[in-house]
Structures are given as structure tokens and as C-alpha cells.
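re: ur question from earlier - yeah i can do the single chain one, its not a big deal. heres the input i used so u can compare w yours
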Amino acid sequence: MRITCPWCGDRPGEEFAYYGDATVTRPAGDDPAAWMDFTYLRKNPAGPHRELWHHAAGCRSWLTVERDTTTHEILSVAFADPERGGRKS
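and the output i got, formated as C-alpha cells:
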């Protein structure tokens, strides 16, 4: 798999670390059931899905990658935080 980093260009997937579902939102408040779901329950979607990736062996930018989970085709790549130019670490 190859990912096109907005800073570094087309790079091998080995340079990136997967950090999970980019669509998950933290629950508000102290509801234990909501925190249990947030912590342990994840969907396993088939098809296009937004994910967080870190360019760990490159520019160290955090990226939001839209990837088809059935084919691994990369559909789009953008900085997770465009206001900071993607560099969060």
C-alpha cells in the first residue's frame, strides 16, 4: 500500500502508523456505558472509511486517510489538522 503524504509525496505504507477510526467522537459527560462503548466497541465497515494515520517515519504529520477497506485503495489523504499544516507531534 502506498499513501501520498501532503508534505512528502507518494510513500510506502511501512512509513505510516495506523491509529484507528477517524469518525469516532469522545462521549460528553461521565456515563460509564458511553465510555465503555467509546473504548471497546468499534464498527468494522466494508468500503470507504476515514482513518487516522501518522507519518511516523517521515514528516511526522497526522493524516486523515479515506481508504476502501475491501480493496485497500486510498481514496483521499488530508492533514488531520489543516490549520497546523498537519504537524502535531
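Strands lie at 2-5, 9-12, 17-21, 48-54, 62-68, 74-79. not sure if urs matches, ping me
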